[in-house]
Amino acid sequence: xxxxxxxxxxxxxxxxxxxxxxxxxxxDREIRRTFGVCHECRRCSDLCDSFPRLFSLIDGPGxxxxxxxxxxxxxxxADACTLCDMCQPICPYTPPHVHAIDxxxxxxxxxxxxxxxxxxxFFENELGKTDRNGRLMGFLAPLANWTSSRKNRxxxxxxxxxxxxxxxxxxxxxxxxxxxxxxxxxxxxxNDAAPAYGRKAVLYAACFVExxxxxxxxxxxxxxxxxxxxxxxxxxxxxxxxxLERGDIASVCASAESVAAELGGWIDKGYDVISLVPSCxxxxxxxxxxxxxxxxxxxxxxxxxxxxxxxxxxxARSEGLAEGLTPLKGGVALxxxxxARALNEGRKSAIMMRLIPxxxxxxxEGCSGxxxxxxxxxxxxxxxxxxxxxVAKQVARSGRxxxxxxxxxxxxxxxxxxxxxxESGTTEPGTAETxxxxxxxxxxxxxxxxxx
Length: 452
What we know:
10 strands; 4-stranded parallel sheet; disordered N terminus; 49% helix; single chain; 4 domains
């Protein structure tokens, strides 16, 4: 089969229950085969830290081939992978090529094997429990945000010592009112004069929007209402991306089945499904259907799901957007997030931004270096900042007033990189807006005159 949006063959289903999936010898053979191909190719050498680590296993005196590498050294390669999927689109050896290379799948498989052999560190594992953390920290929001502030050096040093969270990493803020609760009594009025009036959509909030940045959800709901779209909010549990990063595939599949059952009811009532964060969109549309290939509810959900940016562009191309967009002075440096790129749907966020009159958009490609909770850990944060440095430099030197990214965590990481450049005096100081990242839907809301 071929993915018509990208021209590439679809990635095959993953039989994670097969005996050989977690078999030590089978996995070791596949790692050696894949690493050998990657070592000869080297096309991904500058994408992240995984590939330089891989090459160092083979290069150098007394090495020469993957056969001489020690199996225990493979962990360093896997530990540097953020599952961003950016190596997959540029790999010349993906299926149906005879080499059939899928590096991100292999790293996820290795982590599942490693989890079976030895559970991840306590605090690293607990960080991935986003729903529990969001509910608890929301209840304690003022205290939680005070504790996690970079200005609070004492508590950040304690967090680093106890939990392994780097003292300088920007951490998400928590809110006493979740997105779903804050909108329950304040649903925006639907514009019945809009060209797209009559559409209905349910917003899958994503754990980050639900607990950490409800402003993204409110902006999306307001823009959709301005364009005649009736909306509902649905959020029962996280999509499972943090669990996938830790090799907990069983939890990923349990989340998938739960969310698919909930959203399936909305599909039955004629609602489109909109995901607000590209990582979640990737899970719903691509990753879940590969791990649960025989589940019709999962396949149906994937077919009915759109990312918020893609949905707005679809309205613009079919019915047309509602009037009222006004220019945003100063231009936008727009980061095309890794998981948005992995969706293979093109630069839809740039297309959406250019719907704003006279909008000067600079699209910035490349990995931010964050990688979810991976990027805040003490051992990973410096690596993440190094990986994201080219993107941060480009943004810092762009002269644009606004920074935007479809991935909120990536945007915050880039903004921190820009901040570092400005503090070091290596670039011209930017404006205050450059220091704050926004989701593109928030800028579209601003263009409509819709503010927090």
